Structures are given as C-alpha cells and as structure tokens.
C-alpha cells in the first residue's frame, strides 16, 4: 500500500516506521519548521503534500492518507478529500467539533444517556471569576480549540483556578468550568471505518502528570496502561452510543472517550478524535494484525474485528529536555546521540521512536518538545507489563532522559479492583 502522512510535528513517527518495515511505501509531510529533523534519513519527506495526491490516487484502493491533526480546518480538508475519492484515516470536521467544542460534546453525551458533570461555558475570564466567587467548589478549566489547555484545581473554593483565570485575561476561545469529579480516570477507544466500529475496543488508563506519584504539571502524556480484554461492557455503555452520529457525519479513524468512573456512574470528560499519543504505539503491541491490515480493513470496510493479545500493555514516554515545554520557548539543543546497543532485535520491537532522526547513521534527538520515544511492555498482569517496560527503558542511553517508572501503580494497588467492583468490566476475558 501507499501511505501519505500529514501533520504539524510528525506525531505518528513510529507508525510510519512500522508501515515501512511492513513493506509499504510511506511519505510524510511535516508542517512545523522545528520538526523537519524528525524521521530525517528514515522516511521520505515531502514539502507539499498536495503535490503527492496523484501518487496516492495512482495506487487506487491501496492508497491511503493519514492525518494527525484535528483542527476544524484539517477536518474540513479530510472531508473534502473523501468527497474526491481519497481514502482518508484520521478525523473529520465532525470529529474536530466533538474534540474541540466541549460544551457540544457534553450535551450530546447527556442526550445519549451518560452523566454530565456540572459545566458552564464562558468567554470572559472576569465573568468566570465572579461565578467561582458565587459558587465556590473545586473546578477544572478546559479551553476549547485544538491544543486547548486543561487545568485541574484542588482548592475547595476554586481559588487556584481563579488565579489562573486572572492571569489570562485575554481569552481567544470559549472555555468551560467543570466541577472536579473524583474517581478513577478511564478511557475507551476504537477504530471507526466510516460505517461502524472495528472490535474489540480498548480500555486505557492515562497518566498525564510529569513526576511519579502523579506530581507536577500536566503534560501531554507520560504513560498509559491499555488492554483489549474485558472491554465490551464499558464500550457498550459509552463510546458505542456515538456510532450513528459518527456514521452520519463521515468520521473515519480512531476515537477515544475519556471518563471518570465512581459509585455514582460514568462521567465523560472529553473526546480524542484522532490517533492518541502514545496510545497508538502501545496498542500496536497488543494487535496481532499489522497496521497495514487494520488500515486496509478500515478503508475497504472489510472485517469488523481483528485479533488481539490478552492481558495488558504499559507504555512509558521517554522524554528529553525541553519536555514538557517547547523549543519555541526553551531553546534546548537537539541532535543528542541515542544509543540502543544493549537491546536485542526483539526488544526493539517494543521501542517506538518519536522525535528522532538519523544524522551520519547515528540516531539523534529531534523535534520541538523532547517527546523522544515510547517503551512498552506486555503481560498478563499490569505489574508484569510495567516491569517489562521499565526494564526496556533502562537500556535506552541518551543524555538527560526522564520518564515515569510508576505507570499503572495505582491500578495495581486497588484502582483496577475498584473498577471491577463497579461492574464495568466483562465478567470473563475476551
């Protein structure tokens, strides 16, 4: 097959490398100037992705465009390409609305029978501050729009969120205040082929804070626990309910719904209407089908199921400075050598390269954020998978490497048992 990857920062780097290893033809278009070194010397780069449409079209049913971004403009572009007969996997204009218009998404999920946490949309920071004064409680603030930030407060009167709002008097996008709901954060995701979901769905538990023990600032992601086992019940209660809306609006790609679960029910937080990072890489080690086989099934609307491994996978995001910030703001150097000499070829299948490139045959750091690679481990238990992932991470040699070694520890110490007691998992492994 032929694949053309389109994005700002080459977030699907390891996926492109896997497709190339499978024997497919792969080209990537990377928009951001600071990201041009990612996959340099490893995958063909193109400056203008539109000039490659004829190359994709010539492959007929074997041509596929992969979009990384989920902005409104990107979603509209994907819809237009589909109208012109191209196979596009990524998102859609509707997907962009689900992810970026948080009020719309919450209203839709409420109509579909899910609990809504208290939320209210604002466009004025001063108005939101007055609202907090009038109704003091712990709040989270979530900004609409692609790349919108999230701040989760812990102060019982909302004073911490009020301080953030006071510092951001100029707000370009609407934002919502939502009451902090306590419980276990848990996601569900699946591939959607334009008509229906491919199954099984996956369950995931993300870890967004920078330091072990869930300390520090929120990052994009520091690691995730995923499984395809025992997922059908939770999928039926949540994401499957959106199927008709996705079908009616031309969605084709991966989609995830993140939630909080507790004794009071399932509380939806937000959609991710695109490949999640590092989720796609962690899922890959549990999928018996290759990426090419999964994508072919999606664009031909072939089999609605694919084989998976039982048990769990744990992924650790291995970072280098300036993560979790950007080289636009913190001018840390790139081109730092990376050594993987202690790893066997089998172990390297569990290492998923991200912001890296080749320079004179040496693997080096690249990109804008220091999101360098992902180390994965699998096992019948989360503890076994975590141990395998940590053992692999210790074999990566690069200066100033940082990662969390405790991904999944709260699940191991009681959270997974709590989810099971809530009746949200299938009664037996599938």
Low-confidence stretches: none
Q: How many independent structural domains?
A: 3
Briefly note the structural class of the backbone: alpha+beta
The helix content is 25-40%
CATH architecture of the largest domain: 2-Layer Sandwich
Mean pLDDT equals 94
The spatial strand order of the largest sheet comes to 14-13-10-11-12-15-19-16
Main sheet record: 8 strands, antiparallel
CATH topology group of the largest domain: D-amino Acid Aminotransferase, Chain A, domain 1
Number of helices: 14
**Count of DSSP E strands?**
19
Radius of gyration: 21 Å
Which strand-content bin applies to the residues?
25-35%
The H-level CATH homologous superfamily of the largest domain, spelled out, is ATP-grasp fold, B domain
> Can you identify the CATH class of the largest domain?
Alpha Beta
| Principal-axis shape | globular
Question: How far apart are the first and last residues' alpha carbons, in Å?
Answer: 31 Å
Describe this structure in words.
The chain is of the alpha+beta class. It folds into three domains: 2-99, Rossmann fold (3-Layer(aba) Sandwich); 118-179, Dna Ligase, domain 1, CATH 3.30.1490.20; 184-421, ATP-grasp fold, B domain (D-amino Acid Aminotransferase, Chain A, domain 1), CATH 3.30.470.20. The protein is 28% helix and 27% strand. The protein contains 14 helices and 19 strands. The protein has helices at 13-21, 53-58, 72-83, 93-100, 102-111, 125-134, 159-167, 232-237, 243-248, 279-284, 291-300, 345-348, 382-393, 409-421, and strands at residues 2-7, 25-30, 44-45, 63-67, 88-89, 119-122, 139-143, 150-152, 175-179, 184-192, 202-211, 215-227, 253-262, 265-272, 312-319, 351-353, 356-359, 362-365, 371-379. The strands form four sheets. The protein has an eight-stranded antiparallel beta sheet with strand order 14-13-10-11-12-15-19-16, sandwiched between helices. It has a five-stranded parallel beta sheet with strand order 3-2-1-4-5, sandwiched between helices. A hairpin with a 3-residue loop joins strand 11 (202-211) and strand 12. Helix 6 runs antiparallel to helix 7 (159-167). It starts with a strand and ends in a 9-residue tail after the last helix. The mean pLDDT is 94.
